[in-house]
């Protein structure tokens, strides 16, 4: 399998030696989840990097970003243009956080600020698609960090996961699109770094409860297996 990773952000310079970037973090969790022999190429969309031909790939994965998916920033506008074109092909699309939102937007759905504000830390999500997971599991615990979210299910899409704070936490469309709002690639230390960075913005109560939640672990590796299976399925 060949995967094109469109990396939509850069992480803080001090963390690059540990995590690389969001594209590298996603590549790691996917390889650990069974994609060890895939070819994965990463491109930085804020720097205008794209593959010469998307047709060379089985799937395209959009990472998270601090940017708004509905932004008028030129690189975001260009990314939306390219994703809209990809939606008319048979190349599979996967999105995480910002990517999840931008793909929904390109599918005609409404995306905007989450009415309840920031969603951070460990969150649990009800799972609605038993056919896509093993062992009849009914939920996932995943790490989140977002103030925007998908506000309506894209036309023709299937709701996969939800929570009280994020009603459209994951969706799919046929065997072509799979998107998730929280971050299967995050680890607790990285989530803690983001929480510390935004402590004043979040407020003490929100910060403290989110930090406390990290001690209970998450199931990002399990959701990465869902993503791998989705790409490899016919």
The strand line-up of the biggest sheet is 2-1-3-4-11-10-9-6-7
Class of secondary structure makeup: alpha/beta
Question: From the alpha-carbon coordinates, what is the Rg to the nearest angstrom?
Answer: 16 Å
Q: What is the number of strand segments?
A: 11
The biggest sheet, with number of strands, parallel, antiparallel or mixed sense and barrel status, is:
9 strands, mixed
What is the averaged pLDDT score? 96
Strand content: 15-25%
Output the number of helix runs. 8
Shape: globular
Low-confidence stretches: none
Order of helices and strands: EHHEEHEHEEEEEEEHHHH
Question: In whole angstroms, how far apart are the ends?
Answer: 12 Å
The helicity comes to 25-40%
Architecture blueprint of SSEs:
Layout: E1 2-7, H1 16-19, H2 22-35, E2 39-44, E3 59-62, H3 74-86, E4 92-96, H4 98-106, E5 111-113, E6 119-127, E7 139-146, E8 148-150, E9 158-162, E10 170-173, E11 177-180, H5 188-197, H6 199-202, H7 204-213, H8 220-232
Parallel strand pairs: 1-2, 1-3, 3-4, 4-11
Antiparallel strand pairs: 5-8, 6-7, 6-9, 9-10, 10-11
Walkthrough of the structure:
With 234 residues, the chain is of the alpha/beta class. The protein is globular and about 50 Å long. Helices cover 33% and strands 24% of the residues. The protein starts with a strand and ends with a helix. The protein is built from eight helices and eleven strands. The mean pLDDT is 96.
What is the gist of this entry?
The chain has about 230 residues and is an alpha/beta fold.
Q: What labels would you give this structure?
A:
234 residues; two-stranded antiparallel sheet; globular; nine-stranded mixed sheet; alpha/beta
């Amino acid at each position: 399998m060949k995967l094109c990773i469109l990396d939509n952000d850069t992480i803080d310079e001090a963390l690059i030696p540990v995590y690389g970037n969001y594209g590298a973090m996603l590549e790691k969790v996917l390889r650990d989840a069974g994609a060890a022999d895939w070819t994965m190429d990463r491109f930085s969309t804020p720097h205008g990097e794209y593959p010469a031909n998307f047709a060379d790939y089985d799937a395209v994965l959009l990472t998270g970003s601090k940017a708004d998916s509905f932004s008028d920033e030129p690189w975001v506008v260009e990314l939306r243009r390219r994703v809209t074109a990809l939606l008319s092909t048979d190349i599979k699309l996967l999105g995480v956080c910002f990517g999840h939102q931008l793909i929904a937007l390109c599918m005609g759905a409404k995306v905007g600020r989450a009415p309840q504000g920031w969603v951070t830390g460990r969150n649990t999500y009800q799972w609605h698609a038993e056919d896509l997971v093993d062992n009849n599991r009914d939920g996932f615990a995943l790490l989140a960090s977002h103030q925007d979210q998908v506000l309506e299910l894209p036309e023709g899409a299937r709701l996969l996961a939800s929570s009280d704070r994020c009603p459209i936490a994951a969706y799919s469309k046929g065997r072509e699109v799979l998107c998730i709002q929280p971050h299967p690639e995050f680890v607790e230390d990285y989530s803690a770094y983001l929480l510390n960075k935004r402590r004043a913005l979040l407020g003490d109560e929100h910060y403290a409860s989110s930090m406390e939640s990290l001690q209970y672990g998450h199931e990002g590796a399990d959701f990465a297996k869902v993503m791998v299976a989705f790409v490899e399925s016919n």
